[in-house]
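Because discrete structure vocabularies remain unfamiliar, we reproduce here a specimen of the format, pairing a chain with its fold in token form:
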Amino acid sequence: MAETSWQSAERDSGAMAPYIPLMPLALPAIIGRWLASRGWRPRRHQMDMLGAAQRGDHALLVAPTGAGKTLAGFLPSLADLIAHPTDRLHTLYVSPLKALAVDVRRNLLTPIEEMGLPISVETRTGDTPSDRKARQRVRPPQILLTTPESLSLLLSYPDAALLFSDLRTVIVDEVHAFATQKRGDLLSLSMARLQAINPALRRVALSATVADVDAYRAWLAPDGDIDRVTPVMGEAGAEPNVAILIPEGRVPWSGHSGKYAAKQVMAEIEARQTTLVFCNTRGLAELIFQELWSVNDANLPIAIHHGSLSIEARRKVESAMAAGKLRALVATASLDLGVDWGNVDCVIQMGAPKGSSRLLQRIGRANHRLDQASEAILIPGNRFEYLEARAALDAVEAGERDADDFRAGSLDVLVQHVMGLACAGPFRAEDLLDELRSATPYSGLTAEAFDHVLHFIEGGGYALRAYDRFKRLTQDDDGQGNVLWRVSHPRFIQQHRLNAGIIVDQPALAVRFANGRKLGTVEEGFAAQLRPGDSFFFSGMALEVVRMDTSDLTVRATSKQARIPSWGGTRMAMSTRLADRVRHFLAAPQEWHRFPPDVREWLEMQKLRSALPQPGQLLIETFPHEGRHYLVCYSFEGWNAHQSLGMLLTRRMESQGLMPLGFVSNDYALAVYGLKPVTDPQSLFSADILDHEFVDWVEQSSLLKRAFRDVAVISGLIERQHPGKRKTGRQVTFSTDLIYDVLRKYQPDHLLLKAAWADARARMTDVGRLGDLIDRAATTMLHVTLERVSPLAVPVLILIGREHVAQSAAEDALLIEAEALVAEAMRAD
């Protein structure tokens, strides 16, 4: 089996230049002997991390997968524990994934046991039994592996100061995965509290895919002081061997799954020891698993893994992979972060990767040897996705990473954190404000804003002040002239610990067999479409609905034809840097020789019949087709931004009397269609659309209500659970809708409404990219009027009618219609 990334050290074969230390370093002899017994020696960046620790510096390590980042992160802790044994908590490792914490523990225990070190390593996540959690607070291990949410809960106990008083190091793994998100806000606040408990605490972050090193150094550093964080850059590994699979036939015009290539993918699986097949969504993972299983003539052991499956199902699959018992595993992002299985020799990406950093992360799951190339295959779903896949490969070869969008910390997360600290004990507002500001996302927190946060937790705000259930904090005097904030009743402490967490799941039902065995969860929206006797695929099986109640969907195995479940959530958009590369391809015919003949023919016909936009230019095509008039916008800003723009354009077209009928979009283009032609698209894209139609649309749609539901849950205003009972999704939604209506009417400037607006604008609609699109339209719009559909418009127009296809006959009819559309578009006359 190949070396895991924890074990990865430079093999002493003379293949690499000898390491010259930057300063005298002390590697404990027992570690040196253990490495030597395997023919390994520490890599440069591993010794640099040890040097940073000996100087007392915080450190950010950026190194490729397989470079031994985990060893580099833990090496200083092991060295210190060997030199200065302790029975207290010494090192805290924080991971974005429960599976990663479990995997790191497994890989960490092996060398510890083989060296005979008296060091205990345990995990603490939502899956940890309650009795072990209670024991860990009294008798903690020397090394504890956890998640941001579990760390936050630990800080809510009165004994937190004692538990963490001797903590020496916090290691944040895969920091790029959550630093810019709400979970990163929570972790940053938690590290500020840990630093307040022990000012000598050292912070370490690890990543393989960081574009802006200084931005992450600032996020990691106390008070954002990047000079206190030593950047450690790992040596480059072997260039990955990445290929784009060309289908047997032609690259499809539409679709995003790559399921057409099932036989070819199965052939790749048969030719290798173990293959990871990544999909961008849970629904796609279920679909691809079924497609692969249907062509698995050799009956190879393959499995599926995603976040909606039960804990037991996921752990069973993870164990089978670790033991080398599976030939292939179909997975989502639930496994693309740092889980190390040395026997994976190929990664296959179904559909476009959406970003070079994500692609690199997934490629890194193969091989785990710095001096050997990882192997990966991309399966584009359609012709635009081919261009995106080619752009991703070029970006990887150029060392280009996706940009990260750091922003101010979220208020709902701040509310949850402050309430958690209050559960640990009373506090002075002035002292806490200084501590909160030391967390970089909240460095700009004003005294006025913090006062709003405190008074919101104190009574829910002006409009809710009459209700006792919102009065979670109270003020009193400590007898020495100091005003202290404390929890107003013990029940609020229990309420906080039951409901704390940043990830707000969509309302869901448990999927169970009649014997009670839980398979996982499906969202209420999908479950509401089912009736007894209906069938769907889940956990790789065809299941028939037996009955349904408010919390459970009881099923049995079936051989009936089944459908694929759908899950909500924001779809991943193509990164802006990949979008720029795709735009470049369109304007660079000299590079088309690199493309398959049918993709090249498609672009050449577009150039002949219409136009191809220059980089930075916004191409708008208008044309009639089958009694309707179409406007197609090629902006490459992603499905989320296009969905928002489609809503806004149809509203504006309505006001101009253009009689819109609807719109359809993908990551690359938006098509709006109606009964009257658009002759002046510039008027539709004027900048005030974001001031007028956008605000009006968001406030009248369910978008803001959904955002409010999430921030109300995160802030603790609405409970997800009572002792012994969990609220259904409908109950939570009903409660938040009532409060939302009250606040909109009586307190429109309420803190949570502001937080909901921030979410709606920044995340749920990709409004930043939407604004960039509108800005481009003002100066770079190229409007081409055509007599019929263009080749470039075919992929998005084929989507019309496909959203709710229920019968195979309807699917056949759509295929016939698509063939006719292609024939019309590709005629040269």
Remarks:
- Residues 543 and 557 are 5 Å apart (CA to CA).
- The mean pLDDT is 83.
- The first strand starts at residue 10 and ends at 11.
- The chain has 30 helices and 29 strands.
